[in-house]
Design brief:
The complex is a heterotrimer of chains A (268), B (265) and C (289). By secondary structure, chain A is an alpha/beta fold. Chain A is 28% helix and 26% strand. Chain A has 7 helices and 11 strands. In chain A, the strands form 3 sheets. Chain A has a 6-stranded mixed β-sheet with strand order 5-6-7-3-8-9, with helices on both faces. In chain A, α2 packs across α3 and α3 crosses α4. Chain A is globular. In chain B, 60% of the residues are buried. Chain B has 12 helices and no strands. In chain B, 83% of the residues lie in helices and 0% in strands. Chain B has 265 residues and is mainly alpha-helical. In chain B, α6 packs across α10, α10 packs across α11 and α11 packs antiparallel against α12. With 289 residues, chain C is mainly α. Chain C has a domain of 201 residues: Orthogonal Bundle (ABC transporter involved in vitamin B12 uptake, BtuC). In chain C, α2 packs across α8. The chains are: A alpha/beta (268), B mainly alpha (265), C mainly alpha (289). At the A-C interface, loops of A face loops of C. The structure holds adenosine-5'-diphosphate and magnesium ion. Magnesium ion (MG) binds next to α1 of chain A. The site of adenosine-5'-diphosphate has 11 residues of chain A, from α1.
């Protein structure tokens, strides 16, 4: 499914369709992502966020469409799974987890090298995790672990970073902090970031583009062009209002339209 | 003569301890405790068959252990892994009973296979233990980082290109290899105890993988040496001391780890 | 129907005792096995079964019934597990493993003492593998008491056990006392293990609990049906195994296969048949659709 590299883009997805367990989850999803861009993947629970990310990783075989990775053609992907449940007694420090992101696939014992250490330190610094770099991973808070796993994904210098709900289970201020951090990383390093979320408002200030999933289909583009009443109404197939309440976006179905798509608070 | 037997059992016990300390570290880290119990015991009919029909012990045990690893890995795709493991285990134990019932000295043989005969290790056993043990330890050290990464998260390992299914099979085979080496000396039941106790204490004390591995080996060695001394002093079975020390190490680890995270409901 | 059985089979007193006590033990074990597997405790079952061998070896030393020894020792191990239960699955397995190892060490000691001390039975194999044909009339009362107690616990606590296995948090919200239900389950489990150990020996008793229940849970999702199916499969496995052991005397010209092996073989065969049958039925349905 991965075609020839496309120099200017980090990722080009065309007409991607995916079925899981005999059910069509994604239908003809298309979007592009340029290096250095941060893109939010927004959809209610069960709308296919995880499925889309896992098909980009090659874990799920698409039933149609193409996925093209840009750059030099090498598949360098960073990934943060939706749930990493860490064994609290895992004998690994935060920096060991990051080091496993660098060479966890290599055989043989890890030989200490200055270069290896420098890259691990740089990745830890990029997510501001220096303060707890030497602590056992299982003793860190959810937000701290999230940073460490982002560093794990970053340390191999991926061209594309896929994050599955990196902000879920974080309090609002940590969520904003991580979102800002990701924004900075993508700008500074030219890594394209695709991150899913159920709630749009935390991401609005940081994202360049948005992919909005509903009913298996997607609307993609700059925030101002997608989060609009006419676009979302077409996507859902019935009337949707997009309200701006004191700077917060509310996506509300018209009365009697069935499902409640209101995105006001984060869906746990 | 007595001193000679004791010396060879000392060497055999030490090799088995190193092996169990290394493999056990990953057994605990990857949560494969049930497999570590079932695979050694699953090789039980192999030992019986080798004795009855005069087959090569090592080859037979290896074949059965690898078969067990493959069957459990394959069955757990259709049913839950713990159920698959339990069913495989009882089938093998039943088969072992059938084969053993054909043997003279049935009762002694059963006892030896279950609880080991560390005080009766022959030079031939010793060569086998050393050879298989060395291969298993080298394989674990080669697969060190992929084993750690997939123990941390299967998804993250997959992204890094680690073949999870293959690694799982390799690991179960390593457990089986360790069991094969340990079986004549400490028996199927105590090989398991030696894998769990030292490693579970070591991971609580060390927060880095390599020192944790080293401590696990050191504790396993201390356990075996202490058990051998006590056994020769009291005349009681070595396995009793190994088993009790294993529980003691586990409890000590739990106490040491109290500060880390809420363990209890 | 009865005419199909081999001549003399039902007239033999050991066979009669085996059929009655073994059949009862198999039904109790299969019934207890269903909530046990739903609670994900196949490993705990196996661990307690192996540890119970220490009790079997201890019993002749202190002059109690073997069943009492099996139950005593596995109950002690179960209480050890329940004393400080860890939350995570992997941690529970580890704790089970540690207690298991110690229990086996004790078993090694008692079996050794059994062989060396005066008054010991000297019968290590009997404890580990047992034989259903060695049961006698004196075993009926203890078996009935243990089995009755296990069934009573099951009847009292089955619903909360099932609820707690599906969703412990929901069960707690609904007022289920998880701790008490866990204890009741472990008590029923140790009694069932003791009964099973009495008939097929300590290390094979897992088979009576796991194989029929696993087959039943492959065939149906409904707890009530699963219980009935498991009991039926357990009984079929036990009686089939006893018949097979009896017949093996003829097949092997007098060498007779161990009864415990036969029972385990039939139980596993039934389990495989159930799994395969279910798979074929699904395939057929998919083909028809
Ligand atoms: N393994 C699976 N088997 C069957 N259906 C699945 C599986 N995984 C996901 N699905 C279905 O696919 C849909 C999308 O799931 P997912 O991508 O996880 O959603 P999200 O991440 O947006 O919450 C859901 O309706 C879910 O029920
Ligand atoms: Mg998801």
């Amino acid at each position: 499914m991965t075609g020839a590299p496309d120099a200017a883009l980090a990722l080009r997805v065309e007409d991607l369709s995916v079925s899981v367990g005999g059910r069509r989850v994604l239908a003809q999803v298309s979007f592009t992502l340029a290096p250095g861009e941060l893109c939010g993947l927004i959809g209610a629970n069960g709308s296919g966020n995880t499925t889309l990310l896992r098909s980009l990783l090659g874990f799920v075989a698409p039933s149609g469409g193409t996925i093209r990775l840009g750059g030099d053609g090498a598949r360098r992907l960073g990934y943060l799974p939706q749930k990493v449940s860490v064994d609290p007694f895992m004998p690994l420090r935060a920096r060991d987890v990051v080091a496993l992101g660098l060479d966890g696939h290599r055989l043989g014992l890890p030989l200490p090298s200055r270069q290896r250490r420098a890259r691990v330190d740089a990745a830890l610094a990029a997510v501001s995790a220096e303060a707890f770099a030497d602590r056992r991973i299982g003793t860190l808070s959810g937000g701290q672990q999230q940073r460490v796993f982002i560093a794990h994904a970053l340390v191999r210098r991926p061209q594309l970073l896929l994050l599955d709900e990196p902000l879920a289970s974080l309090d609002p201020s940590s969520a904003t902090e991580i979102a800002t951090l990701l924004r900075r990383i993508s700008r500074d390093t030219g890594i394209a970031v695709l991150m899913s979320a159920h709630e749009i408002n935390t991401l609005v200030p940081v994202m360049d583009r948005v992919i909005y999933l509903a009913g298996g289909r997607a609307a993609a583009g700059p925030v101002a062009e997608v989060i609009r009443s006419d676009v979302l109404s077409r996507l859902y197939g019935h009337h949707i209002d997009v309200l701006d309440v004191h700077g917060r976006i509310l996506v509300v179905p018209a009365p009697g339209a069935g499902h409640d798509h209101t995105h006001v608070t984060r869906v746990p | 003569m007595i001193a000679g037997i004791f010396a060879s059992s000392w060497v055999a016990g030490s090799i088995v301890a190193v092996l169990a300390g290394v493999i056990g570290f990953f057994v605990v880290l990857r949560g494969s405790v049930f497999a570590a119990h079932a695979l050694p015991l699953g090789a039980f009919p192999a030992v019986a068959a080798a004795r009855l029909w005069g087959l090569d012990l090592l080859a037979t045990v290896l074949a059965f252990s690898v078969l067990g690893a493959a069957v459990v890995a394959a069955l757990s795709r259709r049913t839950r892994r713990d159920i698959a493991t339990a069913l495989w285990l009882v089938l093998m134990l039943g088969a072992g009973e059938l084969i053993l019932s054909r043997l003279q000295g049935y009762s002694r043989a059963v006892y030896g296979l279950f609880f080991g005969q560390l005080l009766g290790v022959t030079p031939a056993d010793l060569h086998m233990i050393a050879g298989v043990g060395a291969v298993a330890v080298v394989l674990v050290l080669i697969a060190f980082r992929p084993l750690l990464l997939s123990g941390l998260s299967a998804d993250l390992a997959a992204v890094a290109g680690v073949p999870a299914g293959l690694l799982d099979l390799v690991f179960l085979t390593l457990v089986a290899l360790a069991a094969a080496a340990a079986l004549p000396a400490v028996g199927a039941l105590l090989a398991f105890s030696l894998m769990v106790g030292p490693a579970s204490a070591a991971r609580m004390v060390c927060d880095r993988p390599l020192p944790g591995l080293a401590l696990s080996v050191a504790l396993a060695l201390a356990t075996v040496w202490g058990a051998l001394l006590l056994a020769s002093a009291t005349g009681w079975p070595v396995g009793f001391f190994v088993g009790v020390a294993g529980l003691g190490l586990y409890v000590a680890g739990r106490l040491a780890g109290r500060g880390y995270a809420p363990l209890r409901r | 129907m009865l005419g199909l059985l081999p001549v003399g089979f039902l007239d033999s007193a050991p066979v009669q005792h085996a059929l009655v006590i073994g059949g009862f033990a198999a039904v109790v074990a299969a019934l207890v096995g269903v909530p046990t597997l739903l609670r994900g405790q196949a490993f705990v079952t196996d661990a307690l079964a192996h540890v119970s061998s220490a009790g079997g070896a201890l019993a002749p030393l202190i002059g109690i019934n073997a069943l009492g020894g099996f139950v005593l020792m596995s109950l002690a191990a179960a209480l050890g597990l329940e004393a400080a239960p860890p939350r995570q699955r992997a941690e529970r397995d580890l704790q089970t493993g540690a207690v298991f190892g110690a229990g086996l060490g004790v078993a090694a000691l008692f079996l050794y003492l059994d062989v060396t001390l005066p008054g010991g039975s000297g019968n290590a194999v009997g404890v580990l593998f047992g034989s259903v044909f060695l049961l006698g009339a004196s075993d009926i009362l203890p078996a009935a008491l243990a089995g009755g107690a296990a069934l009573a616990l099951l009847a009292l606590y089955l619903r909360p056990m099932l609820l707690a296995s599906l969703d412990p948090d929901l069960a707690a919200v609904q007022g289920v006392r998880l701790r008490r239900v866990g204890l009741a389950h472990l008590a029923a489990l140790t009694l069932a293990i003791g009964l099973a150990a009495m008939t097929v020996g300590a290390v094979l008793s897992t088979a009576l609990l796991v194989a029929p229940a696993a087959a039943a849970l492959v065939l149906t999702d409904r707890p009530a049906r699963a219980l009935m199916l498991a009991a039926g499969l357990g009984l079929a496995g036990m009686w089939g195994g006893i018949l097979m052991a009896w017949q093996s005397y003829v097949w092997t010209a007098g060498h007779a296969w161990p009864a415990s092996f036969c029972i385990v073989a039939v139980l596993i065969g039934l389990n495989l048949a159930a799994t395969l049958g279910r798979g074929l039925w699904r395939l057929g349905r998919r083909g028809a659709a």
